[in-house]
Specification:
about 475 residues, mainly alpha, Serine Threonine Protein Phosphatase 5, Tetratricopeptide repeat, two-stranded antiparallel sheet, about 50% helix, about 5% strand, disordered N terminus
Length: about 475
């Protein structure tokens, strides 16, 4: 019997067993033997790996498991363990009021340790989903049982998800393994790659996904399509400083994709928004978002978290995003603000809001930044000003390259706040994290641009050593 507590052990991670029905349990295992992961034989009603890939419905169920994990349990989830909450506190977007969340407090105080449960959860649950995508890829490659269109779409989604998850992991931890197999031995001994090597493989997966995915995934945008792959490619290229490629992908989505900016900022986060490229399906009939449940409060002082004064002071006078996307709560003596992008924190009978992962405004800002970096200030303003004008702000004009780049970063800050860690990643990739956070975060150190590698994983796999600087 092989060891059952490993980053790729998809049945032993925190809370994962509670997600899985018997069929999905086997779908996750797919092409690997059960002894690699479980200590008992699978129930008789579980499907075998070969049967999983004979039917589109069962392959689809395996992919739904990955989307559900991202929505509810790791990285892009809107709850306490997601990047919106954790990195909002790690930077300067959110102020923590709860005294019963010590591991979140460590993010807020910048006192993270390699034993932090949220850090361990981000790593292990993300690699669990990577394992699931690899199982799908291995089961579909060369598959002749499914129609080619179905097989290509499923493969495209799996490659997209594998690239997306690894990109997030590298943004958080720096050097990480890029896992492309379900082989137990290989994964248990996986070595870290340089971030540049991780990004090369991310780009390769996303380009392959782009070639396989359909042009339109459907009206609800709950599955990635070709434009979603282009959008994440644009983000990766931007982070890499590959300005021309970032501009090409972003401008293609803007000019040719089936999306449009909302002219009313109050409508941006509705489930039928034409601005959305990719959002998560609701968790049930009438369900809305975890973000709303996490951030909305109705009386002060805040029970858990509130928007920081630093962020609130960043909005320009007359910016309608301040009015629409931040809600004031007062107890008569004090006033606090909570994120109000998602406004429904209870079941509404019919789902009205879904958690958005990628939206068109980001592509405008990517195209603006890439254009400015290439020295084309006029084009940069052509992309930046529509975002400002729909927020009720005057267009910018007559600025030099440096001033335009500063304006774009200010705009990203007020446009993308509390959306999956954009603020942290922007500070990090532009080299501004230490300068902007150290004055307001007493424990901030330059090495805090990376999270610690989980201590439990270093014990299981010495090939992950050395620990990230600052956490030894």
């Amino acid at each position: 019997m092989k060891h059952t507590t490993n980053i790729y052990n998809i049945l032993s991670s925190k809370g994962l067993a509670t997600w899985l029905c018997p069929i999905l349990g086997l779908i996750l295992i797919l092409t690997t033997s059960c002894e690699d992961f479980v200590e008992i034989d699978p129930p008789n009603n579980q499907l075998t790996g070969s049967v999983v890939f004979e039917e589109a419905t069962t392959v689809n169920a395996a992919l739904v498991h990955v989307y559900t994990g991202l929505r509810d349990h790791t990285l892009t989830n809107g709850g306490l363990s997601g990047l919106s909450f954790l990195l909002g506190h790690y930077t300067d977007e959110l102020e923590l009021y709860s005294t019963s969340l010590p591991d979140a407090q460590a993010f807020y105080d910048n006192t993270l340790l390699p034993t932090n449960s949220y850090v361990e959860g981000l790593w292990s649950s993300a690699y669990n989903l990577v394992h699931a995508t690899n199982a799908i890829i291995e089961g579909l490659e060369g598959n002749t049982m499914l129609p080619e269109s179905d097989r290509d779409r499923f493969l495209g989604e799996a490659y997209f998800l594998r690239g997306f998850i690894h990109f997030q992991l590298a943004n958080l931890f720096g050097e990480v393994p890029y896992v492309e197999t379900t082989d137990y031995v290989a994964n248990s001994e996986a070595e870290k790659l340089d971030v540049s090597q991780v990004h090369e493989r991310v780009i390769a997966d996303l380009l392959l996904a782009k070639s396989l995915l359909p042009m339109d995934s459907g009206l609800e945008k709950v599955r990635p399509d070709r434009w979603t792959a282009s959008a994440i490619l644009a983000r990766v290229y931007l982070y890499n400083g590959q300005w021309e490629l970032a501009h090409t992908e972003a401008s293609d989505v803007i000019a040719n994709g089936n999306h449009a900016l909302n002219t009313d900022v109050g409508l941006v986060f509705l489930g039928d928004s034409p601005e959305t490229l990719w959002q998560f399906s609701e968790g049930g009939a009438g369900a809305n978002t975890l973000e709303a449940q996490t951030f909305i409060f109705s009386s002060g002082p805040p029970p858990t978290t509130a928007l920081s004064d630093v962020l609130m002071d960043t909005f320009e006078a007359g910016d309608t995003r301040r009015e629409q996307w931040a809600a004031a709560v007062t107890d008569g003596t004090g006033t606090w603000y909570h994120p109000n992008k998602y406004k429904l924190n209870t079941n509404s009978g019919t789902t009205q809001e879904r958690s958005i992962v990628v939206r068109l405004a980001e592509l405008y800002l990517i195209a603006a930044e890439a254009s400015a970096q290439l020295g084309d200030v006029d084009t940069a303003l052509d992309y930046l000003n529509p975002i400002r004008e729909r927020a009720g702000l005057s267009p910018l004009d007559g600025l030099g390259q440096g001033a335009v780049l500063e304006a774009i970063q200010r705009e990203r800050r007020v446009e993308l706040f509390t959306e999956h860690g954009h603020r942290f990643f922007d500070l990090k990739r532009t080299g501004r994290a230490h300068g902007e956070l150290s004055p307001i975060k007493p424990n901030w150190e330059a090495t805090d641009v990376l999270l610690p590698l989980p201590a439990s994983e270093l014990l299981l796999n010495p090939n992950l050593l050395p620990q990230n600087e600052g956490y030894q």
